[in-house]
Each structure stands twice: as structure tokens, then as C-alpha cells.
Write a sequence for this structure.
């Protein structure tokens, strides 16, 4: 796979990271609420934790992608 296709694939995967994290957190919170009978407290709280985890994951992935792009640019010769 060419570098540009790999870059596009990585960027497109970002769109799934945040909703998946929120859904996972809210789902775990919903299960906890069902167990404890406290609906919707845990759903909201753990959903927000999922949101935070999703934002952190986007940050980590974007930093990794930027570092890879910088390394690739450093390897080129001549003016940009």
C-alpha cells in the first residue's frame, strides 16, 4: 500500500475512535446501572469517561501520525 493510501486510511479510522469509545463507556455504564438500579447515573458518568478516553485516543493517534509524517519529510532531499 502506498504511503498516501496508508495516511488516508489512518485518518479515516479517526472517525470511528470517538463514537466507539463513547458507546463502549455508555454501554458499560448502562450495564452497571442495571446491576445497581441507579439508571442513568452510571450511564452518564461512564459515558463521559468514554468520551475522555476517545479524545485521548485521537490525540495519541494524531501525534503518532504527525511524527511518522515528520520522519518521512526529514528523509526527503531538496526544498519542500
Amino acid at each position: 500500500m502506498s504511503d498516501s493510501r496508508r495516511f488516508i486510511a489512518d485518518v479515516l479510522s479517526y472517525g470511528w475512535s470517538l463514537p466507539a469509545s463513547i458507546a463502549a463507556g455508555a454501554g458499560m455504564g448502562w450495564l452497571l446501572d442495571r446491576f445497581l438500579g441507579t439508571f442513568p447515573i452510571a450511564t452518564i458518568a461512564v459515558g463521559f469517561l468514554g468520551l475522555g478516553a476517545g479524545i485521548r485516543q485521537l490525540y495519541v493517534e494524531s501525534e503518532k501520525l504527525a511524527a511518522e509524517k515528520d520522519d518521512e519529510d526529514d528523509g526527503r532531499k531538496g526544498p519542500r
Summary: The chain has a mean pLDDT of 88. The helical segments are 3-36, 41-74.
